[in-house]
Amino acid sequence: MSSLPPFTVFDVETTGLDPRRGHKIIEIAGVRIEGGKILEPHFASLVNPERPIPPEAAQINKIRSEDVREAPTIDHVLPDFLSFATGSILVAHNAEFDMGFLRIEKELCWGYVDLPECLCTMRLSQSIFPREFRHSLDVVGLRVGLTLPADRHRALPDVLLTAQALLKMIEKGNIASLEDLRCKASLLQPATR
Q: Per residue in 26-69, pLDDT tens?
């Protein structure tokens, strides 16, 4: 694990599934992993999407419009999150979803800004457990022996579960180098299942 770089495992909660259709981030959280350890402090912030949160989104993540009314907007939260992640590689479960929101939001905030490289624990699970059909975060967490948090579908509990699953899969997959991890978890490879 010592040859692996620092990681920032992150998750976003949103008003819907497609940022190209105007859906917005309403919560973002991250934890750093260095030397195989999850570090404190964590990053967590609600985000005011400047629009109502649809009931179907609130039903999943339990975040309501009144919860984010006084929260900062994404143009204030995203720079703080990227500062928290400085010098690390991003990691998310089903990372294409989360990165899709980050890409759209950063373009709306500032235009061209480089985002860090991002690896995907869902793809890592597909590589390490190729005979398994399901790779949702709940399934992966249980598969590697973790207890699921009661408040799933909130950003920080999901991030902590993802970070623990990442460490377990790195160990189970005997991953000793960043190149090996990239090979198994990169967003550049085609998705399966």
A: 999 999 999 999 999 999 999 999 999 999 999 999 999 999 99
User: Active-site residues: which are they?
Assistant: 153
Is the pTM here over 0.85, yes or no? yes
Q: What are the angstrom distances between the C-alpha of 143 and each of 71, 101, 125, 129, 172?
A: 36, 28, 10, 10, 11
Instruction: State in words which class domain 7-185 has.
Output: alpha beta
Q: Which tokens sit at 17?
A: 């599934």
Q: Are 39 and 54 in contact (CB under 8 A)?
A: no
Three-state DSSP at 92 gives strand
Going from N- to C-terminal start, the domains of the chain cover 7-185
AA identity, residue 91: V
131 burial level (CB within 10 Å; 0-12, 13-18, 19+): exposed
